[in-house]
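#struct-pred

JT: dropping the chains for the assembly here, can someone run the whole complex?
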Amino acid sequence: MNFRITHITDYQYSDAVDLSWNKACLLPRDTKRQRCLSSQLKIVPEPVEVRERRDCFGNRKHYFSQQKPHPELVVTAISEVAVGPAPNLAQLRNEPWETIRARLAALKDADVLEALPFLHESSLVQGLSSLADYARPSFAAGRPLTQVAGDLMQRIYKDFKYDPGATNIATPVAEIMSNRHGVCQDFAHLGVGCLRSLGLAARYVSGYIETLPPPGKERLVGADASHAWFSVYCGEDGWIDFDPTNNQIASEQHVTLAWGRDFSDVSPLRGVALGGGTHQVKVSVDVARIPAASV
Amino acid sequence: MSSEQENRRNPGAQSFVTELGIHGRAAAAGSAPTVEQQLMQAVERFGPKRLAKRRKIADKMLRANGATHNVFDSPEQPRAWQFDPIPLVISAEEWAPVEAGLKQRALLLNLVLADIYGQRKLFSQGLLPPDLVYAHKGFLWPCSDHIVDQKQPLSVYSANLARGRDGRFWVLKDRTSPSFGSGYALENRLVMSHSFSGLFKDFQVHRLAMYFHSLHKNLTRLARHNQADPRIVLLTPGPHHEAYFEHAYLASYLGYPLVQGADLVVRDDCVWLKSVGGLRQVDVILRRVDDALCDPLELRGDSLEGIPGLLEAIRSGNVATANPLGSSAIENPGLMAFLPGLSRAMLGEELLLPSIATWWCGQPRECEFVLQNLARLAIKSIHPMAEDGSLCPSQMDAEQLKILRAKIIERPHLYVGQEVDSFATVPSFLSDRIEPCYSVLTTYVTAEDDSYVVMPGGLTRISPVASELPLSQQEACCSKDTWVLTAEPDKQVNLWKKALPEQKIIPQLGSLPSRSAENLFWSARYAERTEAGARLMRSILIKLRELNEFRDADDQLSLKYLLQSLTKVTASYPGFVGDQAEKKLLDPRGELLSLASDANREGSLQASLRSFGRATYAIRDLLPGDAWLVVDSMQQNWNPKLAVSQIGTGKLLDSIDQLILQLSAFSGLTHENMSRELAWNLLNVGRRLERGLNLIELLRVTLVPRHTGTLAEQIMELVLGTSNSLIVFRRRYRSFMQLSNILELLLMDEDYPRSLAYQLRLLQVHISALARERGNDQPAKDKELIGEMLTSLHAANSTQLAQLSNVEGNYPLLQKLLDTQHECLEKLSGILMQLYFSPAQVQHQVGGVVQERAS
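RK: done, full complex below.
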């Protein structure tokens, strides 16, 4: 399925910002199921230079600096992607989780080396030992990892309440675990932490999901949002993405931007500003289906 | 093992040079090396009395050089750098293998650093377990690019060594950014050669300067541009840091500006130093700031010590840091278990210097061993700067042991067990006799031509108890010089550079960092503020005494004016002017005591003095040699521990007299010894501005209201006395005490150093000098304003100012003039700060913390 994504971030400062340095992670990477057809980043005021680099996990990162006083910063990312269907679990090898864990320890394959960075605690996914207690019931002996992760996803979906006001970016996973509510980012961190706590490689995926209007209603432009889910290394079956917020395996409607150990590796827009007083931010995201022929 | 995560088989075989116990048995009482005996003979010839006396001289010198941690932040216990006069001697034969071993270790760690950030062959070859590297907080993912780009990423290296009872040196710790930097070694050598020069006669000791020469060469080599004369800066977390002394010392020795993160700014992918003369490009940063704190954009976002955008500037090749960001991945005690194997595989050599036996718990066999021998080992976290440091299970109770055991079992790969070794002791003179102490030697290594150079010497820290060896900066410290002996005397080396044949060396006058400029300005302001407060306090105490004797109504009233001036000059409201002033005016002693000694009260003498000390400490390198000595002794002497009842007695008065003398010594030293350059101009701008403001404040309270009869004369006399002008006035106007004369002297006289006109005229001179530094293209608001102030003062006429308004019962023209001048001075201060100090702006994070949540 093909989409055009428009992601606008608008910062308004109470005083002009004199200088700022920014790092954006807003243009989609290619994945096994996804091709980025076109993408562009528009920044107002226009910086002298926008530099793209691949980060250590292969994500597209854009660095730019604003060197003149500016009262407002607007970053617009427009990209078109083609997304393939979700993997059919029935056709996979579905190896037991213990087998995958042993494979990670054996260090024989190149794909294992790539998975190793996603085994450990990271700045936003800490306290793995307390997560292990929650995770363990999903890890029946000999159960295929795809099923383990699916079960974990379903449990998070059932046990945790979606509540945008309850957490913020810095809310530790342990707190989400005890309060039992959060948003997609928190649920993704939870899933990542649970899998890591039992020795598996899991990463945080930043992206979008296509939302369909209720039957009979028209689609609202710009009412979508950033989305996040978790992905687990399943050996020869590769990485499989699970969306605990919607209790589904990432499908054709999931557009991937980037992945990392947690949110802080792939924050869509991160910056440091000098001056500026207080600021307000408005974010609008639009995920629009486009016909395959038009691209 | 109970944690499922750790059931994975880890690669890489760990090796240890000793097994528990064996080493202890090998510790035969063996005879001391001969050099040590020689040294002890020499020391004994000194005798304990002379030794103690010389040590006192050394301590004084260390104190004078500022080798004290946290001088101003923990006023209760300034921890001096305690000095042990008996050096650690190492013979040339003993040193050779240490030197070779350190070089080899640096080469090896350099290869490991390049590999773990680059191709990561060590993982697939099974030589190093990835868990050990990836779980370590010093491993910083965003740093891969630039470490891989460098041919020899490990630029400086430091190892802590201890001598075993077998006489060999063992590595306790590998550091890429030592908490005790090489400046300490330098300082100790300097102190030693001054206070114990006699000892050097009998020994041929390696000099240290060659090492710093190599260090400088190495840093120069790192510069991608401007190789002939790169700008190198030393980045410090700031004066609050325990090791700030060392940073300042080293910077001054190497001739590098000492800067903090906020002094640097990234623009156009280059790093610039904010200086009084504008932005100056920086080529190399020798850093004393932790890796993760160096760039809040890509590393730890909450860091205020870093420079946003630094990583991108490094990647663009416009600036380099030593060590490179990310090198703290090497500061991992778990690595020590793998070094012997890595050395064989990567260098094809046996590891020359043994490490203290270390078992990384990330592998089942070693974890089992550690758990079984827990009580005989020290347990450490693998992370650099780990909060719990080193744990001694042997000193734990059952409950604590249980917790520790559970922690290790839960996350074994985060811990190592290390042998609690039996090390040899060295003779030390800490109290009044020579006694054995345990020691740690910090060594320093710098890159040179694809290899490494080792400082022949280092910093030796000692402790009477082996387990209390101060391994971190936070602990109190005793140290001694380290002598590496040599058969041939070293050539004299210095750090002076030779210019290339065609190279014209441009004096770096304008490159004074803005922060130094700001500290100069405030140093002078606080000095002046302290003096103004002290002089007022003196007048008040004298008046108080007279009042007690004569109970005169005029004395009572004039005292009130003085007290109110004190509140206003020191801005210590409400004091004698606000609510409840009446009560305080009746018995001012409590308030006076507070204004003399309360360190936590803004405006008190103690607080001003401390601010003065703090600002001056940060610019010691810009002041004449003895200036810091005066400032330091001022801080030490001013300690008026008085009871309220003692306020009227002479004790406080004596202290104040001494303080005023010392302040005069400071201003005299700066006046007679500083070149009339930027630093001088800034110091004077601060002094003149503050003196002007204080004078105006005094005059506003005392002379603007109308006084009658003898009170008027008494107050005028007090104003003259307080501003140290009574003698001049008497000589000039004899006994004609009238307002217009006073105003003529204290306001109008351009040649009198205590007058307002004099302050303004000098401000004009210094401001013009500063403006030349800035270049002519910028608006000159400061110059305009000071010009206007002088014009308005010139236009005033002292006779007219002394015209009384019967309606208001005061002198309205005088009031208006003083008000305007005061306002203008405050405004001027603001303009100057904007122009020269670029005050650190509030830096805040966007994106990472506040917003953009995925929902």
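JT: nice. Chain A touches chain B through 65 residues (CB under 8 Å). The radius of gyration of chain A is 20 Å.
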